[in-house]
Structure formats: structure tokens, C-alpha cells
Amino acid sequence: MGYSFENKEDRLVVQLLDRFDITQVKEFTADICCRPERHLVLDMKNLTGLDMAALQVLWAIRQAYTGLEIIWPHDNQVVERLELLGFKTN
Fold it and tell me: Does domain 3-84 correspond to CATH entry 3.30.750.24?
């Protein structure tokens, strides 16, 4: 699976893993968009690439949450692509 949810106190942690299955995009988008009242932590530290499915999922997160905490990946190319999607680095 390309993602996992974990509830931690008052926040929802979403960990993105490499290689989303394109069939997971709609499921994930529906799941994440029904939780907009939660503080979201997007954990991408283990992400080493972005395929089209992952980009679609990230776009859904970007649309559903205006303020979210991001744990950035270590891969600079992935960070650059995320910045192009509108995610802001500190």
C-alpha cells in the first residue's frame, strides 16, 4: 500500500510510501477529504520518487488542507517537484 494513517493525539499522521497503486488514488482522496477538521502531518521522509498516482494524491491533500505540517523527504528532486505543486519548504 502506498500510504498509511495513524492517529496521534490531536493529529492525523499520513505516511506516504513509494509507489502508489493508481487504484488507491480515489480511495485515498475520499478518505483524506473527509478528515479536514484534523491537524494533518504529512510524513514523506521515506518517499524517494513521485509517480503520477502519488502526484494526484498530493494534489488532493493540497486542496483539502491549507495548513499542514510536512516531514520532508531527503531526496532533493522530490522536494523540488513538491514545491512545484505548491508545497512550501521552510
Answer: yes
Question: Does 50 score more than 80 pLDDT?
Answer: no
Q: Phi first, then psi: what are they for 7, rounded to 5°?
A: -85, 125
| Tens of pLDDT, residues 31-42 | 777 766 567 788
Starting at the earlier edge strand, list the strands of the sheet with 3-8. 3-8, 11-16, 39-43, 69-71
Backbone angles phi, psi at 39, to 5 degrees: -75, 125
Q: How far apart are CA 58 and CA 83, in angstroms?
A: 11
Cell 488542507, located at residue: 65
Question: Over 70: is that where the pLDDT of 20 sits?
Answer: no
Q: Tell me how long the chain is.
A: 90
Q: Classify burial at 50, counting beta carbons within 10 Å of its beta carbon; exposed 0-12, middle 13-18, buried 19 or more.
A: buried
